[in-house]
């Protein structure tokens, strides 16, 4: 929507300075934007004596010097001139009223200056010197913007007031970004004793050397900086004290160290904590047990990795590095994998045959890359379910991600499904988080080593990071020498430590589509690595027990608790029997569960689904057991059965969401057969309970089935079923 005063400003600028050949005219649309700000700056430069051939859309040192010499002394009540028009226009663009647009400096102009200074966190004095003019002739916001955090804004105001001599005026919009991050580093450097001109806002060797170790009971400016740094990284201390390291600060430090896999895991804030909070790479001297390399590893180099404490290595599926005489292959080989496994190491695969330029990332490129990566992984006998990390090795700006990385990874996600592999992403914190939020990648391999990238500065570490690349170094000597990147491991992805069992590969390839329909089952499917061995796999907030077997009974199961499937469809008898139920209730998920069952049937093709209640001595409450039977259609004489037991943990509900305990008890009732109910009613009760659990998306922290009231709604729906 056009602003009348901004439009007046734009027209005045073009009329007043448009005849100057070097002046950049602004659009006359009534909308504030950088083109208008640039015109204001160039107009200001002309008024304070910068030669027409030297003006530029930048409020630099020369502009500041000229402004304080020729403008600041003039700004008193009654002064008239183009200089005041420019100041008034800049205030209108900032959203602060200066009282008019008449070129007269008045009490209204001073009031606008006082408002700007107060919004920035200062004790206002009403003097618009060069420091303030630079902030005025800028797009920076000094009020809370949509999505901003009031606590972050208070922090920004405090940093301005206490440290502005080091960095000027910081935006106070409540958004934690690179300027706020840099300001916190300046604050740390001042606390370390660095003077203005010595401090540079970069967490370099000198800052690292002077970083103190903080512990409970300490009181200092360092502690306040630590508290602020913890907060902007998502670890609120909830402490009522400023500058004091109490137990709440200690708990936040411990949680941060656990999250970032920093050892030792305690409440002491050493340099690894402070530098990790304020710089994406953190303390590059910290220990890590992972590495990645573009080198095709020899046995001697593998031994170098082992001797240096590395047990997981990232390797490229395809391609080469270098040019001309220095060009060499980087692709993973079967022999190399054998040697790595023999040394007791695991591998996480990386795909990068481009991706150094932003234009690379298109939907069609994603489709092509998914095919190449999937086929290569199959050829190398990499187990199905392994995460492949597709690289974004360029600093894509936040505003460009939607048109580049997002469509690229959407195609990767869709294309890799057919091969049974999972999608990971390598890139900056921001690009990783944005892609994962869309659901096109599960885990992040974060390029934290690129500390200057805009996608790392001022962005939190993604919750679902698996690998953290933070330093490059050379290790070993002679034949064992190699260059690596040091990588921290979160434990979310262990890579793979052996070749795929062909029979298991085929079995899991059949099961993988169930994980797409019921996300809670993805992790159990990946954990199903052998026949005839039951495994318990925690998929919070559930404990899930799985067992894969083969059977010579190649016919679908029969019975009242069985759904038979043929030609990818539920049999007519089940459909007729269920229609009366599903025509009467609206189920509390995005699509009717009946459609979900049809989708499952399309994946099984021929077979059956058997559902019953389950109990185990180690589980305090009843669970649901479902057996998926895949009958052969290729003439073989063996069927595949995958038995799944799901138990919702009462202790998880109590510890994480105690308010949902009532809903949990309701769910428990639905898992118990009703003696007087028909077979169809009990079957639907159990199927609905199972699918309500498994259709949820896995979360970074434990959540219960009661999220967003699902259980409460679901319980009402099932009471309606029982009443039939």
UniProtKB/TrEMBL annotation:
InterPro entries, A to Z: GH (IPR017853), Peptidoglycan-bd-like (IPR002477), PGBD-like_sf (IPR036365), PGBDSf (IPR036366), Rv2525c-like_Glyco_Hydro-like (IPR015020)
Domain of life, per lineage: Bacteria
A Pfam short name: Rv2525c_GlyHyd-like
Keywords, alphabetical: Membrane, Transmembrane, Transmembrane helix
Membrane spanning stretches: 700-723
Domain Peptidoglycan binding-like, chain residue ranges per copy: 81-130
Domain Rv2525c-like glycoside hydrolase-like: 303-485
Protein's name according to its UniProt entry: DUF1906 domain-containing protein
Native source species: Lactococcus cremoris subsp. cremoris IBB477
Organism phylogeny: Bacteria, Bacillati, Bacillota, Bacilli, Lactobacillales
């Amino acid at each position: 929507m056009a602003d009348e005063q901004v439009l007046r400003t734009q027209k005045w600028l073009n009329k007043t300075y448009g005849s100057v050949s070097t002046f950049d005219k602004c659009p006359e649309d009534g909308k504030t934007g950088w083109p208008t700000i640039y015109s204001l700056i160039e107009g200001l430069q002309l008024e304070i004596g910068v030669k027409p051939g030297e003006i530029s859309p930048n409020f630099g040192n020369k502009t500041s010097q000229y402004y304080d010499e020729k403008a600041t002394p003039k700004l008193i009540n009654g002064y008239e001139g183009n200089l005041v028009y420019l100041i008034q226009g800049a205030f209108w663009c900032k959203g602060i009223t200066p009282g008019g647009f008449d070129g007269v400096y008045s009490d209204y102009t001073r009031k606008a200056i006082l408002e700007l200074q107060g919004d920035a966190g200062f004790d206002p004095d009403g003097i618009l010197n060069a420091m303030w003019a630079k902030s005025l002739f800028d797009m920076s916001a000094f009020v809370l913007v949509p999505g901003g955090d009031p606590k972050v804004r208070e922090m920004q105001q405090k940093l301005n007031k206490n440290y502005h001599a080091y960095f000027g005026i910081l935006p106070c919009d409540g958004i934690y970004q690179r300027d706020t991050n840099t300001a916190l580093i300046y604050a740390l450097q001042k606390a370390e004793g660095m003077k203005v001109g010595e401090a540079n806002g970069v967490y370099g060797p000198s800052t690292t050397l002077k970083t103190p170790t903080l512990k409970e009971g300490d009181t200092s400016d360092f502690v306040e900086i630590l508290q602020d740094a913890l907060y902007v990284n998502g670890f609120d201390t909830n402490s009522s004290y400023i500058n004091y390291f109490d137990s709440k600060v200690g708990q936040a430090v411990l949680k941060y160290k656990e999250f970032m896999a920093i050892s030792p895991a305690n409440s002491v804030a050493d340099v690894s904590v402070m530098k990790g909070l304020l710089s994406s790479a953190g303390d590059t001297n910290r220990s890590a047990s992972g590495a990645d390399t573009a080198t095709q590893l020899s046995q001697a180099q593998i031994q170098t990795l082992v001797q240096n404490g590395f047990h997981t290595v990232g390797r490229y599926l395809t391609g080469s590095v270098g040019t001309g005489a220095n060009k060499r292959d980087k692709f993973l080989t079967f022999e190399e994998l054998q040697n790595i496994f023999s040394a007791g190491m695991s591998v996480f695969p990386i795909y990068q045959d481009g991706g150094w330029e932003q234009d690379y990332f298109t939907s069609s490129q994603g489709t092509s890359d998914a095919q190449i990566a999937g086929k290569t992984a199959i050829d190398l006998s990499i187990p199905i379910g392994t995460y492949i990390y597709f690289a974004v090795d360029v600093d894509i700006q936040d505003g460009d991600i939607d048109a580049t990385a997002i469509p690229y990874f959407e195609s990767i996600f869709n294309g890799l499904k057919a091969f049974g592999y999972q999608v990971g992403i390598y890139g900056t914190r921001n690009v990783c988080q944005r892609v994962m939020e869309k659901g096109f990648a599960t885990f992040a391999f974060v390029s934290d080593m690129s500390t200057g990238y805009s996608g790392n500065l001022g962005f939190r570490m993604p919750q679902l990071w698996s690998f953290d690349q933070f330093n490059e170094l050379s290790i070993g000597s002679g034949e064992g020498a190699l260059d690596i990147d040091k990588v921290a491991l979160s434990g979310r992805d262990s890579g793979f430590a052996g070749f795929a069992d062909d029979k298991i590969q085929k079995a899991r390839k059949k099961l993988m589509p169930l994980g797409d329909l019921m996300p809670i089952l993805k992790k159990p499917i990946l954990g199903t690595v052998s026949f005839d061995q039951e495994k318990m796999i925690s998929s919070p907030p559930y404990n899930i027990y799985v067992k894969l077997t083969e059977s010579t009974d190649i016919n679908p199961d029969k019975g009242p608790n069985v759904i038979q499937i043929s030609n990818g469809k539920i049999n007519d008898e089940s459909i007729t029997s269920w229609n009366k139920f599903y025509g009467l209730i609206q189920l509390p998920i995005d699509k009717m569960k009946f459609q979900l069952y049809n989708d499952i049937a399309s994946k099984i093709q021929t077979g059956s689904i058997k559902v019953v209640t389950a109990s185990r001595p180690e589980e305090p409450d009843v669970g649901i057991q479902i057996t998926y039977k895949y009958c052969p259609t290729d003439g073989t004489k063996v069927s595949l059965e995958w038995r799944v037991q799901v138990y919702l943990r009462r202790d998880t509900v109590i510890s994480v969401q105690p308010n949902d305990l009532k809903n949990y008890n309701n769910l428990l009732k639905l898992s118990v057969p009703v003696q007087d109910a028909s077979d169809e009613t009990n079957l639907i009760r159990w199927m609905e309970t199972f699918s309500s659990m498994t259709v949820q998306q896995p979360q970074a922290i434990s959540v219960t089935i009661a999220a967003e009231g699902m259980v409460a709604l679901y319980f009402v729906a099932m009471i309606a079923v029982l009443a039939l």
